[in-house]
């Protein structure tokens, strides 16, 4: 049956199975194209309201932004502080766990910037790749 002799389930949840590789945990938290951008923006700006995050990122929809913010909250990457004012003010910032991923994102961004031009055959020979401006600014602040 479903249970072994000690009554422990012989089946693991899909998530437990996938966690055999730590990269799966990363993928679970940062799936989609905007979550890492949200973290980069908050790393540079420290604390932002919803509309300011949307303005910094640019072409993200409200539906995607609110879903991604909720998932980042649920995973302990960001925190949400609500002020009891009228109108209600809500601010988002990185948690300690969120700050711990910023150097990783910086390295990924740097790697992507170096190899981005390899994908673009029509760019000039020897052109530099692109870098995330939020991470560039954050890096200048910590130097």
Structure description:
This protein has 7 helices and 3 strands. It is mostly helical. Helix 3 crosses helix 6 (96-119) and helix 3 packs parallel to helix 7. The protein has a 3-stranded antiparallel β-sheet with strand order 1-3-2. Residues 1-5, 7-12 and 125-129 have low confidence and may be disordered. The relative contact order is 0.13. The protein is globular.
Helix/strand layout:
Elements: H1 14-18, H2 22-30, H3 35-45, E1 47-49, H4 50-57, H5 62-74, E2 78-83, E3 89-94, H6 96-119, H7 133-142
Antiparallel strand pairs: 1-3, 2-3
Helix pairs in contact: 3-6, 3-7
Low-confidence stretches: 1-5, 7-12, 125-129
Radius of gyration: 19 Å
Q: What is the arithmetic mean of pLDDT?
A: 79
Strand arrangement in the largest pleated sheet: 1-3-2
By oligomeric state, this entry counts as: single chain
Structural class: mainly alpha
Order of helices and strands: HHHEHHEEHH
Please estimate the helix content: 55-70%
Q: What is the CA–CA distance across the termini? A: 59 Å
- Main pleated sheet: 3 strands, antiparallel
Shape, please?
globular
Q: Estimate what percentage of residues fall within beta strands.
A: 5-15%
Beta strand count: 3
């Amino acid at each position: 049956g479903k249970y072994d002799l000690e009554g422990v389930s012989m089946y693991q949840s899909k998530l437990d199975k996938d966690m055999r590789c730590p990269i799966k945990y990363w993928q679970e938290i940062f799936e989609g194209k905007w979550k890492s951008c949200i973290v980069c923006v908050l790393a540079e700006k420290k604390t932002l309201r919803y509309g300011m995050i949307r303005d910094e990122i640019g072409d993200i929809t409200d539906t995607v932004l609110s879903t991604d913010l909720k998932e980042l909250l649920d995973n302990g990457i960001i925190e949400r502080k609500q002020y009891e004012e009228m109108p209600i003010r809500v601010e988002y910032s990185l948690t300690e766990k969120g700050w711990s991923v910023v150097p990783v994102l910086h390295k990924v961004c740097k790697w992507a910037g170096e190899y981005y031009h390899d994908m673009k055959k029509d760019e000039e020979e020897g052109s530099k790749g692109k870098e995330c401006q939020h991470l560039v600014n954050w890096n200048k602040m910590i130097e």
